[in-house]
């Protein structure tokens, strides 16, 4: 498979994925998926620009729900929950751009709902509302239960997923298909695809399709020889820590959560996400020189305040001897002194031809994924099976039901 080849579709008839075949060493399946993402982005955004397709249909319902001040809920689990959180950020920006300036807490503003918690409700959304599920394969039981609950409440249901043949797709009124399936269980394509779908929906909302070429170039920037060397440097600095803290703010919070999940499932290193300001409110007491830290800061809204507080956090952890690195937007890189990130930093270039929030979330995807993959190499771990190749962990997964 070359980096431009289309990835396999979901099985037909639909079936859940099986554990990826083991490889003796890199490149892993995860490696292949990361390297395929620039081409995937261009293909997906081109296809979802169709004015008669699922993305356009969903955009029309998002607009109608927002104008009617009806709830818009986005839900998912695991990597798909992070895709749901990112979708919320992308849609909020699009609604503001489209002249629907709803603010946080106002009716009609998209919000995230964790799928398991939503599945426990006896009412979710209600008549006139919109509930959007995110599920890469469409078989996540908690997400599908949440959709079933929303259907009983009278909500319109949509699903961002790889195939229209899955159990989740069968529940939805609108299915936005991404068509190309992740081949690693340490999902990368499964994180990127719903963000691309949400970016396409946002394009229909504002009447300006996102540039497939700009998305391709943004993702490819994280795979240049220079970027790979910097990633390997950062991974090497973090490989020996006892645990990792990832810090994010604003639209970078979904990416910070996703990096934590990737590190734990793909490298077996304990990790935790902290909101930028939250880290300073008690959590410093629980970290020491055996802790690594990665700051993700690409958010451009209220940038001055975020940069100032981020600098304060980095100064604080430096006093504790913590190895800190960062994934930074290009303008943030210039504003934060280099000595605050002695472990290294990965730079996300500006992408003026993409909406700012989408550019932040898409731009940090490859750096956080490649950091995980190179950290797995440094720790001599195969990231693909997320430890299900170990009988103990397989029994643990089976015991959970």
If you had to describe this structure to a student in words, what would you say it looks like?
- The protein is α/β, with parallel strands linked by helices and 401 residues long.
- The model has no long low-confidence stretch (mean pLDDT 95).
- It is globular and about 55 Å long.
- 47% of the residues lie in helices and 13% in strands.
Shape: globular
Mean pLDDT: 95
Determine the strand fraction and express it as a percent band: 5-15%
Q: What can be said about the biggest beta sheet?
A: 5 strands, parallel
In which range does the helix fraction lie?
A: 40-55%
Rg (C-alpha, Å): 20 Å
What structural category arises from helix and sheet content? alpha/beta
Number of strands: 10
Residue runs with pLDDT of under 50 for 5 or more positions: none
Strand order of the largest sheet: 2-1-3-4-5
Oligomer: single chain
What are the secondary-structure elements, in order, as H or E?
A: HHEHEHEHEHEHHHEHEEHEHEHH
* Spatial separation of the terminal alpha carbons: 35 Å
What's the number of helices? 14
Q: Care to give the gist of this entry?
A:
The mean pLDDT is 95. With 401 residues, the protein is of the alpha/beta class. The protein contains 14 helices and ten strands.
Features:
47% helix; single chain; five-stranded parallel beta sheet; 10 strands; alpha/beta; 14 helices; 401 residues
Helix and strand arrangement:
Blueprint: H1 29-48, H2 54-67, E1 72-76, H3 79-97, E2 111-114, H4 115-119, E3 130-134, H5 141-153, E4 156-161, H6 167-171, E5 174-177, H7 189-206, H8 212-221, H9 225-238, E6 243-248, H10 253-267, E7 271-275, E8 291-297, H11 303-319, E9 323-329, H12 330-335, E10 344-348, H13 356-378, H14 391-400
Parallel strand pairs: 1-2, 1-3, 3-4, 4-5, 6-7, 6-8, 8-9, 9-10
